[in-house]
Amino acid sequence: MTTPAVPTPEVAEKVFGDRLPLAVRYVEHLATSGIERGLIGPRERDRLWDRHVLNCAVLGEVVPADANVADVGSGAGLPGIPLALARPDLRIVLIEPLARRVDWLDEVLADVGLDVAVERGRAEEPSVLRRWEGADVVTARAVGPLARLAGICLPLLRQGGAMLVLKGASAPEEIVRDAAAVRALGGGEARIHEAGAGVVDPLTTVVEIPRTGAPRRNRRKERR
């Protein structure tokens, strides 16, 4: 079985620069062992570049320089690995609770040669929070509603840091629906970014929510 070819090499090179060969190697892993071991659905094989790798890599347009990034629920390394390939200035940890996925991530990172940390656990676990809290950016890829994601991601952030969530067309409705819950969890006003002009079609929708305070329940405890 052949690996899906880079659909538009000049566009992919614009995103990954001299790291494009590493991105190609990552896609090889996704298309073979990633499918065999259940990290990627077999129907996604022909859409790996556009729908997954490039779609995630353009998130780098929204991430500040030299940031510490925690990728929550990383799974097959999406968006963390494409982001690391596109933005070598970032320091990234992939947080993933399932052992089989962690094993795969370790194997892929060793083969590709990326200096990216992998943490087995859930982001909300105290031991994970102790090791990785204070991040500048926390990323997640459509793994749940914004209110739930805010409860998981915001505690990992420093004050003023931001969670960046890849979402679909329903993002504006989600922002309105979950605004009160997000505020109660210490999140600020959400913004929508569209990334990847000239790279992906449709554009990648990114919801940015800054951490502006502590959850309200923590504030009550602090006043006691």
Automatic annotation (TrEMBL):
Pfam name, any one: GidB
The keyword Cytoplasm belongs to this UniProt entry's keyword annotation: yes
Principal location class: cytoplasm
Record-listed S-adenosyl-L-methionine binding positions: G73, L78, A123, E124, R141
Localisation: Cytoplasm
Top class in the EC scheme: transferase
One biological process term in Gene Ontology: methylation
Single GO term (MF): methyltransferase activity
SUPFAM superfamilies: S-adenosyl-L-methionine-dependent methyltransferases (SSF53335)
EC number from the UniProt entry: 2.1.1.-
Keyword annotations from UniProtKB, A to Z: Cytoplasm, Methyltransferase, rRNA processing, S-adenosyl-L-methionine, Transferase
Protein family: Belongs to the methyltransferase superfamily. RNA methyltransferase RsmG family.
HAMAP family named in the record: 16SrRNA_methyltr_G
Entry function: Specifically methylates the N7 position of a guanine in 16S rRNA.
Protein name: Ribosomal RNA small subunit methyltransferase G
Organism listed in the record: Pseudonocardia spirodelae
Gene: rsmG
